[in-house]
C-alpha cells in the first residue's frame, strides 16, 4: 500500500516510521533540511523511538519536498500539521486539496479534541474546583525521550488556571530556564511536590506515588 504523510513533526513522523515497516510511505514536508535528514535515516526531532526506528529498522520510507511525487500514487494520505491560535494551518498541506478524492473542503476541519489536543477546559475546571493555591505541572514534554514542550498541550490548561489567579509552578528537568511563560521552574522534585497543592501529570509516574492524593492525571491504566 502507498501511503503519503503530510508533515514530519512528532505525530507525522511517528506514523511514518510505524507504517513504513509494512507499507511504502512517502513523507512530504516543505522544509528541505528535514527531508534530507529523514532520507539519511536521521530524525529531525528529538525522540528516542523515532531515532531508533530510523537508524535500525528496515523501513520503506522516503521523504520529499515535491508535492506531486508525494501525492500522485498515494492510496491514503495522512495529514498532521500544526494548529496555532485556534486555527488549522493548511499551508504545509494545501496540495492535498487538489486531489479530487479529498477536495478543498478538507482544509476546514473542526478543532482538535483528545490525544495531544487535551480537553483543556474540562481539566482546568476540575483543578480550579479543588481551590488550590499552587498548581504544579509535572513535566511539559508529551512523552519520555522527547523535547517537545514548547507546543505542549498542557500550556492551555496552565493558562486557564493562571487566569483564575492560581499560581502555577513547573518541574521539567530538560528545561534549562528559571521560568516558563512567567511560571517558576522548580529543579528539586521534592521541593516541587511539597510546594504544590495539586500536581498535573500526563501519566501516573513512580516519582509521584508518595503524593498520589495530589495528582491529577489522564492516565487511566498506569501502564505506559
Helix content: 25-40%
- What proportion strand? 15-25%
Oligomer: single chain
User: Segments where pLDDT lies below 50 for 5+ residues?
Assistant: 108-118
| Number of distinct helices | 7
Largest sheet: 6 strands, mixed
Q: How many strand units?
A: 12
Distance between the termini: 30 Å
- Structural class by helix and strand composition: alpha/beta
* Rg, Å, rounded: 20 Å
Shape: elongated
Strand/helix succession: EHEHHEHEEEHEHEEEHEE
* Largest sheet: spatial strand order: 9-10-8-7-11-12
Averaged pLDDT: 82
Outline the structure in words:
This protein is α/β, with parallel strands linked by helices and 224 residues long. 25% of the residues lie in helices and 20% in strands. It has helices at residues 10-19, 32-39, 48-56, 67-71, 120-128, 154-162, 189-195, and strands at 2-6, 24-28, 61-64, 76-79, 83-84, 87-88, 134-138, 167-171, 179-180, 183-185, 198-201, 215-217. The strands form 3 sheets. A 6-stranded mixed sheet has the order 9-10-8-7-11-12, sandwiched between helices. α1 (10-19) links the parallel β1 and β2. The longest helix has 10 residues, at 10-19. The chain is elongated. 28% of the residues are buried.
Amino acid at each position: 500500500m502507498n501511503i503519503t504523510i503530510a508533515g514530519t513533526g512528532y505525530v507525522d513522523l511517528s506514523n511514518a516510521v510505524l507504517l513504513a515497516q509494512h507499507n511504502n510511505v512517502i513523507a512530504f514536508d516543505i522544509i528541505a533540511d528535514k527531508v534530507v535528514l529523514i532520507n539519511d535515516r536521521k530524525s529531525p526531532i528529538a525522540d528516542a523511538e523515532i531515532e531508533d526506528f530510523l537508524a535500525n529498522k528496515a523501513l520503506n520510507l522516503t521523504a520529499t519536498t515535491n508535492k506531486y511525487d508525494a501525492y500522485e500514487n498515494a492510496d491514503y494520505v495522512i495529514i498532521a500539521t500544526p494548529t496555532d491560535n485556534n486555527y488549522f494551518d493548511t499551508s504545509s498541506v494545501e496540495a492535498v486539496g487538489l486531489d479530487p478524492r479529498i477536495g478543498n473542503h478538507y482544509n476546514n476541519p473542526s478543532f482538535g479534541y483528545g490525544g495531544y489536543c487535551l480537553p483543556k477546559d474540562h481539566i482546568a475546571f476540575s483543578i480550579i474546583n479543588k481551590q488550590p493555591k499552587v498548581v504544579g505541572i509535572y513535566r511539559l514534554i508529551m512523552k519520555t525521550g522527547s523535547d517537545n514542550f514548547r507546543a505542549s498541550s498542557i500550556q492551555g490548561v496552565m493558562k486557564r488556571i493562571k487566569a483564575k489567579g492560581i499560581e502555577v509552578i513547573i518541574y521539567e528537568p530538560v528545561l534549562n530556564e528559571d521560568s516558563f511563560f512567567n511560571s517558576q521552574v522548580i529543579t528539586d522534585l521534592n521541593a516541587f511536590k511539597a510546594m504544590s497543592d495539586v500536581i498535573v501529570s500526563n501519566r501516573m509516574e513512580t516519582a509521584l506515588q508518595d503524593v498520589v492524593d495530589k495528582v491529577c492525571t489522564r492516565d487511566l491504566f498506569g501502564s505506559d
